[in-house]
Amino acid sequence: MNVEIITVGTELLVGNILNTNAKYLAEELTNLGFNISKHTTVGDNSANLEIAFKYALSKNDLVILTGGLGPTKDDLTKETIAHSLSKNLIEDEKAKEKTISYFKSTKNEIAKNNFKQSLVIEDSTIFYNDNGTAPGMALKHNNKHILLLPGPPNELMPMFEKDVKIYLSKLKDQIIISKDVYLFGIEESKADQTLSDILPNTNPYIGIYAKTGEIKIRVTAHAPQNSTCETLINNVVDIIKTRLGEFIYGIDIKNMQNALVKTAIKSNQKIAVAESCTGGLIASQIVSISGSSDCFNCGIVCYSNEMKEQILGIKETTLSEFGAVSPQVAKQMAQNVRKISKSDIGISTTGIAGPTGGDSNKPVGLVYVGISTSNHTSVYKLLLSKGQPNERQKIRHISALFAMNEARKAILNNEKGVKTNDTSN
């Protein structure tokens, strides 16, 4: 089934806003087995939108439009599509009630134009918006399918996950299920090469998606029965585990901080973090996870040597002899924050994120990560600079990912009774 995605909004057309909806929808639709034929972006102009829509409908089985469903005069998507299909706009009582309820919850007065969002195209299936006031719509016309979805990503994405996937599954007369495998510590090209013999599969479809420091492998199957989908997916996931198991940190876990928090809570382990070069990034990511209070004790950011001594109790002799960026300091930071907070796991980072501050002995990108438990303390040396400009945030981000992943593995090793080598002063 061929699909064209039309994103609507002058702010997208002129580049004021990044078009994340097109990327998200293209990835999701591909995973569901649809063929993306084209992306089109149209400004807030009804005449141009109608031309683009009619052309897309003539060439594709499914047209998905995002944006232009709001309350203002330049939000013209549903009006334009209704006119193009010779359909009426009718008031949907439930959409109106949700608009009223939404404004009551925010304690803001409802402007009259907000009720414009209660109008929907006749004969359409309505996707009610749990995160805003503009409902989505789906309708069929001459054996073609049209979807209208809200523009804000925080409204579109939950709606797609909750309602649109189910609707699209029915179009294919198939159940569609996906499973995500998350990896850290391997390059996309290496993962691709390792799985090259199964990547051409169409059912299950295997997609590899890289982001900074991480890889997500999505396995998507379609079949008439749920059990058949599960079998198809699990067979492929087993192959991925066999070949790339050492790099897998979670399945359907979303991100590294989620994996760490869930592992710590399951094992009843408390975490504490002492950060220098990551500047609170690890602590921030951990506490972004709901329920992290069950495993996170404290985070300390000690940037200066003075604060490393006064707050973390790092020995002055260690700092003067080896410097703040050293395995010796990383070890003491991890051990001391664990002891100070009476935690089970102590995590530390100290390094040179750049772009200045390095030398031939300690270059930009040098980071030491410490992981301390009651049984052992390990320190890891990272060299993260690729010699490219603007690497600071990337170095900090990968350092945080590495630290959380090693902490996760340390918790699992404790459960298994595995003892790693102690790093001596």
Main attributes of the structure:
Alpha-Beta Plaits, 3 domains, 40% helix, disordered C terminus
Protein described:
- The protein is α/β, with parallel strands linked by helices.
- It folds into three domains: 170 residues, MoaB/Mog-like domain (Molybdenum Cofactor Biosythetic Enzyme, Chain A, 3-Layer(aba) Sandwich); 77 residues, Alpha-Beta Plaits, CATH 3.30.70.2860; 161 residues, Maf protein.
- Helices cover 40% and strands 24% of the residues.
- Strands 2-1-3-8-7-6 form a six-stranded mixed sheet, with helices on both faces. A five-stranded mixed sheet has the order 14-13-15-16-17, with helices on both faces.
- A hairpin with a 2-residue loop joins strand 7 and strand 8.
- The radius of gyration is 26 Å and the shape is elongated.
Kindly estimate the percentage of residues that lie in beta strands according to DSSP. Answer: 15-25%
Query: What is the residue-averaged pLDDT?
Result: 92
Total number of beta strands: 17
Residue share in helices? 25-40%
Per the CATH scheme, the topology name of the largest domain is Molybdenum Cofactor Biosythetic Enzyme, Chain A
Rounded radius of gyration (Å): 26 Å
Shape: elongated
